[in-house]
Amino acid sequence: MGGVSSLVEKGSTVVLKPNAGHVAPPESAVCTNPDVVRAVIREVKKAEPKRIIIAEAAAIGCDTMECFEACGLTQVAKEEDVELIDIKREKDLINIPVRGYHSNISHVKLPRFLLEAEHIINLPILKAHASMVFSCALKNIKGVVQDKVHLDMHRENLTMAMMDVWWAVRADINIVDAIYAAGGFSPHTPVPEYIGCIMGSRDPVAVDRVACHLSGINPDEVSYFKVAAEVGLGAATDEEIEVIGEKVADHAIHMWVPYLGDMSTRWPEYRILCENACSSCQALLALNMETLKAIGEYDKNTDAVIVVGRKDSIPEDIPKERLILHGNCTRKWRDRGLFIEGCPPAEGGLHNTIIDRSEMNDDTATAEDIERIVTRKAATAPVWREYVLKMAEEYHRQNG
Ligand code: SF4
After folding, report:
1. Which residue from 132, 133, 279, 280 has its CB within 8 A of the most atoms of ligand 1, so it is best to mutate?
2. Domain DUF362, which positions (predicted)?
3. What is the pLDDT of residue 183?
4. pLDDT classification of 247: cutoffs 50, 70, 90
5. At residue 130, does pLDDT exceed 90?
6. Hey, whose CA ends up nearest to atom 2 of ligand 1?
7. Pair type for strands 173-185 and 189-201
8. Angle, to 10 degrees, between the axis of helix 279-294 and the axis of helix 223-230?
């Protein structure tokens, strides 16, 4: 790709943006492997930059420094003598307008050091993702914003907001850690799978499309490629992409990504009205329905009718406590059922609403609701983990 000196100028500031958004060890494949980050640092040093910074704003609810520690980046930064910055703690922020924004994000507050850096190197890991189906280069740049912006992004249209952030912070190059990828119900319940590749591109969409093919995902099933094409962020089709180096087909695997499939028929005991829904809401549907099964709540709640995606009408005859409205697309029916806010909503919102039969949005959740959900999550975590591993085993028995 031209070598590091074609990318990095002597005396410049280089920001490395790995995926270090969760408290997860390297072997989980949820965060960019520290050896990949170390290799990039050593390469960048050859160009003699003034500063090398590893920066991240971890997922909402996660402490970035704790994430750095768990995924091995604190040690890498120390040993390689580079700076480690938690974007969430940055005070020196600039509120910049997003020219021609497409989402609710007309301005975005970003750290000065990031905006003033001469180079940004995006270092994602390839993984399945609960609220996006799939996470790689495009999604990784979402981790440059603080929690307030992050929450705003989720409120209206996350995929489009992600594209808007890209226009504000464009990485010079994207280097993907696809040595081990996290399949399964990643990022929270990952099942690591070996691919053994590193990929690079200046085009984040192109590298993400190839990452899909490498892991056996059909990019047409991931909504955000359509959005990226709409805003012209990168390659809109495979035909526009030239792959140099190893052949994708020689390394492609059937990664287990349970966020895909026919959502209307997958849980026949339930009435699920899922049409015109983005892959994000479909992924969350899969996560929550399987959670119900794992924790023994599936058979108890088959009276629930679940609505997901844009619909012109919904059945008239369903009592309010049985009608579960998932996501902002269903907001117009809010007074007819139990509405779960978000675009997409929070990850466990659906199964908790189905079990508790009460609305728990920002404006309606009580302290007891939150306490109950946290306690349930902790109590059911081991059984859920075991369930996921069995599902993964079964998948690979059938698909290789
Ligand atoms: S709420 Fe609607 S627009 Fe938002 S992710 Fe879900 S299906 Fe897509």
Report:
1. 280
2. 14-213
3. 96
4. very high
5. no
6. 329
7. antiparallel
8. 160
CA angle 261, 329, 135 (to 5 degrees): 50
Please give the number of the atom of ligand 1 that sits closest to the Cα of 281: 6
The full DSSP string for 64-98 is: HHHHHHHTTHHHHHHHHT-EEEEGGG---EEEEE-
Mean pLDDT across 26-37: 98
| Residue 364 binned pLDDT confidence (cut-offs 50, 70, 90) | confident
Q: Is the CB of 49 under 6 A from ligand 1?
A: no
Tell me how far the alpha carbon of residue 68 lies from the centroid of ligand 1, in angstroms: 31
Amino acid at 29: A
| Residue of 221, 307, 329 to test ligand 1 pocket, by largest number of atoms within 8 Å of CB | 329
Q: Which two tokens stand for residue 64?
A: 């970035």
The closest-lying atom of ligand 1 relative to the alpha carbon of residue 344 is 5
Ligand 1, residues 162, 343, 347, 350: which to mutate, most atoms within 8 A of Cβ?
343
- pLDDT level of residue 361 (50, 70, 90 thresholds): confident
CA distances from 351 to 10, 311, 359 (A): 53, 21, 12
Q: Report CA(174)–ligand 1 centroid distance (Å).
A: 27
Task: Give yes or no for residue 343 CB within 6 A of ligand 1.
Answer: yes
Average pLDDT over residues 238-246: 96
Contact predicate 275/284, CB 8 Å = no
Q: What is the mean pLDDT of residues 309-323?
A: 92
What is the rounded distance in angstroms from the CA atom of residue 195 to the CA atom of residue 179?
Answer: 5
Which residue intervals of the chain bear CATH 3.40.50? 4-251
pLDDT for residue 311 is more than 90: no
